Amino acid sequence: MGSTIIRNWDRTRSWRPRATYHPVDETGAAEVVRQGAEQGRPLKPVGGALSWSDAPAISADAMRFDRMARIVEIDAGRKRVRVQAGARLSSVNQALAQHGLALDNFGSIVMQTVGGYLGTGSHGTGGRTPILASSVTHLRLIDGLGEVHELDDAHEPELFSAARVHLGCLGVVTEVTFQCVDAFDLEERLELVDLETALADLDRIVDDNDYVKLWWLPYTNEVQVYRFNRTDRPRTRKTFNERLDASGVSSIAFAGLMALSRTFPGITPRMNRSAQKISFKPRVRIDRSDRIIRYAGSIPRHQEAEYAIPRERAATAIDEVRRAVLAADYRVNFPMEIRFVAADDIPMSPVSGRDSCFVGAYVGSRRWAGPYFADFEALMADHDGRPHWGKSFSRTPQELRDLYPRYDDFDALRRRCDPEGVFRNSFVDRVFPA
Ligand SMILES: Cc1cc2nc3c(=O)[nH]c(=O)nc-3n(C[C@H](O)[C@H](O)[C@H](O)COP(=O)(O)OP(=O)(O)OC[C@H]3O[C@@H](n4cnc5c(N)ncnc54)[C@H](O)[C@@H]3O)c2cc1C
């Protein structure tokens, strides 16, 4: 137990817990939950605290999982991995690669804990690939009374289904089993495509490739289209630019440019165009699947809001955001990211019941984040956008209820799992008001 300050990734939120628990096993974690329930003291499970939203906000005690971060078992025959909830995705990927296996799902970073990644419904990209939570086959969860539930399709299936995207409010996740696939390599093709052409061609771009993401640097006319496809061809050697990215030099340079644009907002359009010319040249490279879609270097601190909209609305919605940015007083000095995810059946998953496009509005300025995200969220609302739970959003409970057909079922389950409100915090209060 300790009580140091906990800050989120972009340092816009910080909390000083009354006590921070670091249990070494499930029994110890359950005992802490039981005490919280008996004494009416809130307890927040916290993963990497990477979320921009207040999902991990701590109002009294915190529980962290640095001592529950083991890869418990790899079943090569069934292609499954069982991990403790505090394991970082980086160590899961590494362990799987050593056994010729992989997760078929790749976000931009691998620093998240398994418990936190699932909790916010975090996602990668690929029109045929759902979010990682869809690959979960078993979960162990301590409810708000300290009872342990072993969950899968056959045991408490309703709770199992919901707990895959648990929003940190059903209980403490202690262990997760994922269905994996055989390890594979991907070829990345990066091309600069005229933005209007890319939007007109979006469906084909997504359907013709295993994984796709697009980055648009505002005020430029071209969009960076990244296509990723499985390959057996030899891995490529790292180029000078890739080495610069990996060393962190590019990130420092970009962070410097972002600081300059905050001081001299007028230079942002020119700065973005120069950055595109210098850093985003067409290229082809081949590497292990989990190493190629994620960002290789360190990422300069910035703010993010991201929404999942029905895939068929993507081109229209992206064009509307582009127009709003061009007409605005604020400046946007970070790429907008566009990814695609297949539908699932998880109650509070942002892609529940619909193939989706995730539109990410990112900006390296706290001052510009306010007006940018307000415009962005208004546009996303017009397209029935569902917010990423781990990023900035301001949807009301009624709006969320309208967006999620099983919102009431989840809330009822939440009340059953946590009758004393041990896991409530500002996030839970604003998503499911009492
Ligand atoms: C630089 C950067 C890049 C990112 N890239 C992506 C991306 O590509 N795709 C994407 O979808 N998201 C992305 N995110 C968002 C990120 O995936 C989510 O915010 C994720 O939840 C962070 O994981 P974490 O371990 O830090 O969880 P935290 O932020 O600590 O917690 C998230 C939620 O999970 C709960 N929680 C954590 N552990 C447990 C547990 N063991 N049991 C019960 N509840 C728990 C917390 O209470 C909280 O509600 C990115 C974030 C950053 C900072």
Which labels suit this protein?
alpha+beta, 15 helices, 8-stranded antiparallel beta sheet, binds flavin-adenine dinucleotide, 3 domains, 434 residues, 20 strands, Vanillyl-alcohol Oxidase, Chain A, domain 3, 5-stranded antiparallel beta sheet, Uridine Diphospho-n-acetylenolpyruvylglucosamine Reductase, domain 3
**What spatial form do the alpha-carbon principal axes imply?**
globular
Quickly count the helices. 15
The percent range for strand residues is 15-25%
Radius of gyration: 21 Å
Helix-residue proportion: 25-40%
List cofactors, ions and other ligands: flavin-adenine dinucleotide
Q: Spans with pLDDT under 50 lasting ≥5 residues?
A: none
What would your notes on this structure say?
α8 (249-263) runs antiparallel to α9 and α11 packs antiparallel against α12 (366-382). Helix content is 33%, strand content 24%. The protein contains 15 helices and 20 strands. It has three domains: 6-63; 71-182, Uridine Diphospho-n-acetylenolpyruvylglucosamine Reductase, domain 3 (2-Layer Sandwich); 185-387, Vanillyl-alcohol Oxidase, Chain A, domain 3, CATH 3.40.462.10. The mean pLDDT is 96. The longest helix has 17 residues, at 366-382.
Task: Give the SSE map.
Blueprint: E1 6-7, E2 14-15, E3 19-21, H1 26-39, E4 43-46, E5 61-64, E6 71-75, E7 80-84, H2 89-98, E8 101-102, H3 114-119, E9 136-142, E10 148-151, H4 157-163, E11 172-179, E12 181-182, E13 185-194, H5 195-200, H6 202-207, E14 211-216, E15 222-231, H7 240-247, H8 249-263, H9 268-279, E16 283-288, H10 289-292, E17 303-310, H11 314-327, E18 336-341, E19 356-363, H12 366-382, E20 386-387, H13 397-403, H14 407-417, H15 426-431
Parallel strand pairs: 3-5, 4-5
Antiparallel strand pairs: 1-2, 6-7, 7-11, 8-12, 9-10, 9-11, 13-15, 13-16, 14-15, 14-18, 17-19, 17-20, 18-19
Helix pairs in contact: 8-9, 11-12
